[in-house]
From TrEMBL:
<dbReference type="GO" id="GO:0016747">
    <property type="term" value="F:acyltransferase activity, transferring groups other than amino-acyl groups"/>
</dbReference>
<dbReference type="InterPro" id="IPR050832">
    <property type="entry name" value="Bact_Acetyltransf"/>
</dbReference>
<keyword id="KW-0012">Acyltransferase</keyword>
<dbReference type="InterPro" id="IPR016181">
    <property type="entry name" value="Acyl_CoA_acyltransferase"/>
</dbReference>
<feature type="domain" description="N-acetyltransferase">
    <location>
        <begin position="1"/>
        <end position="157"/>
    </location>
</feature>
<dbReference type="Pfam" id="PF00583">
    <property type="entry name" value="Acetyltransf_1"/>
</dbReference>
<protein>
    <submittedName>
        <fullName>Acetyltransferase (GNAT) family protein</fullName>
    </submittedName>
</protein>
<keyword id="KW-0808">Transferase</keyword>
<dbReference type="InterPro" id="IPR000182">
    <property type="entry name" value="GNAT_dom"/>
</dbReference>
Amino acid sequence: MDVRPLRPDEVPTFVDDLWLPFATEMGNLDEHDALAGDEYVRVNALAYRQAQLADEDVQTFVAEADGSQTGYTTVSYSESPPVFARGATAKVTELYVEPDARGSGLGTALLERAHEWGERRGCEHAALSVHARNETAQACYEAAGYETRYLKMDRQL
């Protein structure tokens, strides 16, 4: 297994093989994250990912096994407001492992790569959000040393 940065030429395959399944799974878990029902979802996802590749404060890592992408994580650099005594944070914004590869340590390897990236950028902490109903992901994150510090709440307006 190889965990490495996503390359620009891989974005279409990445969107089709990893991001769309991830987004669909998250939408099935919680309708708040359901994809728009139009033909522009893929086009917008491609443009969004290309823009992220140009942003030095965002990095997407893909895991590759036997020549195909089997998982990914996206991490971003976030400065702490100067009123707080904490340093910058590496925010893990997405983590996905194909269902057949789950439980193999791939999620942990992707998290470790995101943490390494954050440490190189001078981050003091790593943070992430996880769906309240996604117990499998919560267990993965807890095993990697994450603990609940905040509960995010929202409501329909």
